[in-house]
Amino acid sequence: MDAFYIIISTSLDEETLSATDTVKADKNLSQVEQAFRSYKTVDLKVGPIYHYTAERVKAHIFLCILSYYYVEWHMRELLAPILFDEDDWEAAAARKESVVSPAKKSEKAKNKANKKRTSDNLPVHSFQTLLDDLATIVKNTISTTIASKSFVFEKITQPTAIQQRAIDLLGISMICTQ
User: Fold this and answer.
1) How crowded is residue 170: how many other Cβ atoms within 10 Å of its Cβ?
2) I need a labelling partner for 95 at 20 to 30 A (CA). Which of 20, 45, 85, 166 fits?
3) Strand, helix or coil at 8?
4) If residue 94 lies in a helix (H) or strand (E), which one and from where to where?
5) What is the DSSP secondary structure assignment for residue 148, as one 8-state letter?
6) Is the pLDDT of residue 169 over 80?
7) CA max distance for the chain
8) In terms of C-beta density within 10 A (0-12 exposed, 13-18 middle, 19 or more buried), how is residue 82 classed?
9) pTM
């Protein structure tokens, strides 16, 4: 394998942004790019923006991406036990030699990846496949007539075991109170 070097530079001084933090920021750039792709195409499909100056459009997009990235980051952190993502941060950090070395998975994360099952024997998902799975939970409106009386009610589909685990990890309720 050929060796190569990458030079990452910044206009900020060492006190503001250290060399280590510069490399971390560069590594996190791919996550921001993924969030932008999701924002524009896969998940949110952002439509027309009704701003008429370049500054307002840029500010609107920036705030939307920042919000999306923030929400996704928190969701990934909470859902890590059922995702292929790392969820034993202390063990992973203890094995990391430097910021430039590749991240090494913890034994827990390796087991999840190899077995494709969580510690409580549920299937492991990527973030996208879990979102797709959660999207199958729907609220149905049911209307029926019994003894010439019409009844209309709503019923939320019963979550599967993995969906219920995700709901529990996110700390959300399936009961709508509106």
Assistant:
1) 13
2) 166
3) coil
4) helix 89-95
5) T
6) yes
7) 79
8) buried
9) 0.64
Query: For the segment 129-164, what is each residue's pLDDT rounded down to a tens digit?
Result: 999 999 999 989 999 999 999 999 888 899 999 999
Position 173 scores a pLDDT of 87
User: From CA 132, how far away is CA 38, in angstroms rounded?
Assistant: 13
Tokens linked to 130: 């879990």
8 A C-beta contact, residue 113 and residue 151 = no
At 98, the pLDDT band (50, 70, 90 cuts) reads low
- The owner of tokens 């932008």 is 36
Q: Are 101 and 92 in contact (CB under 8 A)?
A: no
Phi, psi for residue 147 in degrees, rounded to 5: 50, 50
Gyration radius (Cα) of the chain, Å: 22
